[in-house]
Amino acid sequence: GAVRIPTVSFSEEEQNFTALAEFEDYIRKVFPLVFSSNFIQHEIVTQYSHLFTVRGLDQSLMPYMILAHLDVVPAQDEGWKFPPFSGEEHAGYIYGRGTLDDKCCVIVSGHNGAMKIVEKLQLHGVKLLFVVDEGLAVLDGIIQGVKRPVALVGTSEKGSITLNLTVNQPPGHSSMPPPETSIGILAAAVSRLENNPMPNMFGKGPEASMFEQLSGEFSFPLNIMMANLWLFSPVISRELEKTASSNALVRTTTALTIFNSGIKSNVIPHSARATLNFRLHPAQTVDEVLDIVRNTINDERVKLSVINSFDPLPISPYDESNFGYQILKRTIQSVFSGVPVVPGLCIGNTDSRHFVNLTDSIYRFSPFQLKPEDLGR
């Protein structure tokens, strides 16, 4: 039912508000006890976000928060086995936009909504013991060399920079081309960035602890190597660079996403612009990455303009004495039959980053089990 409601957000300003209103009607119908309980306070924030406060027996204890977002990114029918908003069930799987990101967490457990909720909590002086948001999951056969399912809890998430590169040069006609054009200069700059990746930061974020705690799940000789990263870290880090998914764990990634220039085949354009997205490893900052970008391009004709950016989130505690991590760990193991639970790095971005002033314990986990074939569904 939830998947069939197209709560699409094209941007922060352009959203399907009719569907968001319909979604409220849906959850009221499906969860009547939640809305009628004397122990649960329900508040609507900025019209479409919902804040539920469940009152415990001991009001002196610090509260914790569980997050999930209602909106989904747009989807066309092409490439889907079943229409993206059909909610079709087939062979034990539910197909549809939002089944993984993130209506599963809404039912089991928006950008502007999260910020407004934080503002409301700060206004009332609320501090949180810990926060749980969407993120990593139980991975079955996805980590190479690990045979049984393991649960990864995101104890940090990458930062982000969206950057425009612009080159302006005199326009001309294709019959008399200059030695360099705006397109050529910009293409060379982008090529330098792609051919010179950011430094490998393995061991400076939660990814090292993940492999150390999973060392017993690997067979020989990987089990020895993972348990002794102080010695084998250079070898492991080079191996992790070889696939896109594991490479994203060990460094700040560079992705060219948009390239615009030219309007006619025989006209040399005045301007060329490229948009890149960087996902920052927890060991680096926005300023550090921008300095590397400038030095790598090394061409004053290429102008940089930051569209938006934020630093990686601090690494949340995951030791044996941390209540939030341990209660989440025990809960995961009770649901998923005692799977190993280890800290990990969330390479995507979540709403949890807005809560850093309310708690130092933020964890990212989505309660589902993924196999390699699920990633292409």
From TrEMBL:
Keywords from the named record: Hydrolase, Metal-binding, Protease, Zinc
One protein family per Pfam: M20_dimer
Reactions this protein catalyses: (9Z)-octadecenoate + glycine = N-(9Z-octadecenoyl)glycine + H2O; an N-acyl-aromatic L-alpha-amino acid + H2O = an aromatic L-alpha-amino acid + a carboxylate; N-hexadecanoyl-L-phenylalanine + H2O = hexadecanoate + L-phenylalanine; N-(4Z,7Z,10Z,13Z,16Z,19Z-docosahexaenoyl)-L-phenylalanine + H2O = (4Z,7Z,10Z,13Z,16Z,19Z)-docosahexaenoate + L-phenylalanine
Peptidase M20 dimerisation domain span: 156-300
Annotated metabolic or biological route of this protein: Lipid metabolism; fatty acid metabolism; Amino-acid metabolism
UniProt-listed GO biological process terms: amide biosynthetic process; amide catabolic process; amino acid metabolic process; proteolysis
GO molecular function: aminoacylase activity; metal ion binding; peptidase activity
Family of the protein in this entry: Belongs to the peptidase M20A family.
Function noted in UniProt: Secreted enzyme that regulates the endogenous N-fatty acyl amino acid (NAAs) tissue and circulating levels by functioning as a bidirectional NAA synthase/hydrolase. It condenses free fatty acids and free amino acids to generate NAAs and bidirectionally catalyzes the reverse hydrolysis reaction. Some of these NAAs stimulate oxidative metabolism via mitochondrial uncoupling, increasing energy expenditure in a UPC1-independent manner. Thereby, this secreted protein may indirectly regulate whole body energy expenditure.
Name of this protein: Peptidase M20 dimerisation domain-containing protein
